[in-house]
């Protein structure tokens, strides 16, 4: 039992250790570029320079399905729908640091 509990603690520590950069590199960089300067699918604005607050609220709007600027809202929705509010905050902080 003790072993199980310590394994659970380790596993949750690993989950919480996922940084905004890890989320960005794993879930966003393919379309938006590692530096945030790629226009996703040649449509979106570049996200570098947008600022963390704007990126956070934009991601939340895509997650709920209320944002669809260039007709690709569902592409973004499926890219962010599994992220928790905490994940969204960390990835927005990281993406917002890209200049
Ligand atoms: C499969 C490609 C893809 C992935 C992966 C992806 N995006 Fe996007 N993103 C897009 C597209 C396409 C749009 C434009 C959607 C629309 O029509 O509104 C967009 C739009 C955005 C916008 C708004 C840009 C604008 O022009 O206002 C932000 C911010 C954004 N994405 C952030 C992210 C973040 C952060 C992640 C990772 C969690 C991510 N995206 C993952 C393709 C992607």
Q: Which key phrases capture this entry?
A:
binds heme C, mainly alpha, Cytochrome Bc1 Complex, Chain D, domain 2
Q: What's the β-strand tally?
A: 0
Span between termini: 48 Å
Question: Which structural class do the helices and strands define?
Answer: mainly alpha
Strand portion = under 5%
Poorly predicted regions are none
Query: How large is the radius of gyration?
Result: 15 Å
Give the names of the bound compounds: heme C
Largest sheet report = none
Q: What would the principal axes of the Cα set say about the shape? A: elongated
Oligomer: single chain
Give the mean pLDDT: 92
Please give the CATH architecture: Orthogonal Bundle
Q: What string, H for helix and E for strand, traces the elements in order? A: HHHHHH
- Give me the number of helical elements: 6
Helix residue percentage: 55-70%
Annotated CATH homologous superfamily: Cytochrome c-like domain
CATH domain class name: Mainly Alpha
- What is the domain total for the residues? 1
CATH level 3 topology:
Cytochrome Bc1 Complex, Chain D, domain 2
Quick overview:
The protein is mostly helical and 99 residues long. The protein contains 6 helices and no strands. It binds heme C.
Structure notes:
The chain has helices at about 1-15, 20-25, 30, 50-65, 75-80, 85-95. With about 100 residues, it is mainly alpha-helical. It has a single domain, classed as Cytochrome c-like domain (Cytochrome Bc1 Complex, Chain D, domain 2). It is elongated, with a radius of gyration of 15 Å. It starts with a helix and ends with a helix. Heme C (HEC) binds next to helix 3, helix 4, helix 5 and helix 6.
